[in-house]
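In response to the reviewer comment on reproducibility (Comment 2.3), we provide here a single inverse folding case reported in full, input and output, so that an independent group could reproduce the run without further information from us. The structure tokens appear first.
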């Protein structure tokens, strides 16, 4: 080969099938290859699965990701089967007022529905059926709950369910729980739809705190609504029930029903004094007056209270408290008088 002159590729590198490299004229017997697609190449090269590195706590592990066709073929027949039917009912035992009741309930059934429709227990009233009014309040493990929304199926594992029927100790007024007796004799009800709920919510409060303030009572009863507006009497009833539970002598002014056991009732005071005072600062609403009157009645010697947002006329027993004491009591309650 002359220097600087290219005479073609060496025979060993030639792609010409007719060039044997030794000058022969034999034709090659090799047939041309058929075209190879990308899919065929992947299949033949065993690249149908791709290894993907997945970071773990100690390093990488290989997770095999198969082609879509292989994944579909690998699915077990059971995976395509219809899902099992959801559970619709349950057998359980409800502990209500110390008695066991074996029932089969719909898993969507409320505790109120079970007690009324299945067991025939009229121990709570249904008001709004939306957990807004508290008329259906009962206790589950000492906590007040709305019977209209608590599911029966969730209360069959030994929970203690308590209703107004479970706190009564015997017949007549004397057999009532102090809270029940106070609501009855103090007049803490009108139509009675909300009363069972108020009684149970009050019971839950007084079991933990038998000397509550009016604000604490309002907080405990915030989930209960009285459409008749008996709130002043309800507050007074809870306070008197609390006093009885503390062991104090309680005086009720409501008349007794003939045949009931005797309960302390206020006796007329011959020398009782009634005087009207004007508030140094008028009250904002009649509700403020109601709260003040309820609290003033709890003071020893105060027999009754009347008035409005501008004036108040307490009646007291002069043997237990004088006018100065009445004025001092009003000032301590935050409403001084002239």
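Designed residues, in position order:
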């Amino acid at each position: 080969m002359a220097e600087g002159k290219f005479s073609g590729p060496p025979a060993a590198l030639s792609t010409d099938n007719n060039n044997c490299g030794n000058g022969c004229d034999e034709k090659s017997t090799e047939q041309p290859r058929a075209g190879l697609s990308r899919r065929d190449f992947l299949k033949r090269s065993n690249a149908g699965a791709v290894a993907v590195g997945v970071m773990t706590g100690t390093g990488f592990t290989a997770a095999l990701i198969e082609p879509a066709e292989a994944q579909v073929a690998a699915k077990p027949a059971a995976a395509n089967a219809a899902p099992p039917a959801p559970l619709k009912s349950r057998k359980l035992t409800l502990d209500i007022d110390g008695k066991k009741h074996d029932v089969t309930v719909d898993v969507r059934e409320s505790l109120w529905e079970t007690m009324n429709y299945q067991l025939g227990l009229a121990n709570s009233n249904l008001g709004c059926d939306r957990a807004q009014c508290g008329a259906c309040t009962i206790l589950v493990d000492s906590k007040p709950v709305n019977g209209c929304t608590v599911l029966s199926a969730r209360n069959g594992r030994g929970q203690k369910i308590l209703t107004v029927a479970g706190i009564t100790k015997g017949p007549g007024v004397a057999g009532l729980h102090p809270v029940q007796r106070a609501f009855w004799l103090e007049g803490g009800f009108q139509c009675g739809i909300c009363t069972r709920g108020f009684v149970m919510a009050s019971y839950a409060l007084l079991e933990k705190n038998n000397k509550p303030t009016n604000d604490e009572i309002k907080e405990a009863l915030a989930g209960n609504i009285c459409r008749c507006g008996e709130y002043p009497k309800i507050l007074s009833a809870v306070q008197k029930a609390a006093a009885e539970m503390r062991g104090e002598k309680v005086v009720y002014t409501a008349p007794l029903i003939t045949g009931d056991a005797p309960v302390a009732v206020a006796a007329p005071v011959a020398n009782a004094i009634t005087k009207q005072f004007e508030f140094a600062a008028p009250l904002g609403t009649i509700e403020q007056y109601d709260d003040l009157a309820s609290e003033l009645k709890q003071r020893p010697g105060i027999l009754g209270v009347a008035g409005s947002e501008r004036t108040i006329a307490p009646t007291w027993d002069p043997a237990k408290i004088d006018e100065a004491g009445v004025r001092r009591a009003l000032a301590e309650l935050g409403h001084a008088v002239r």
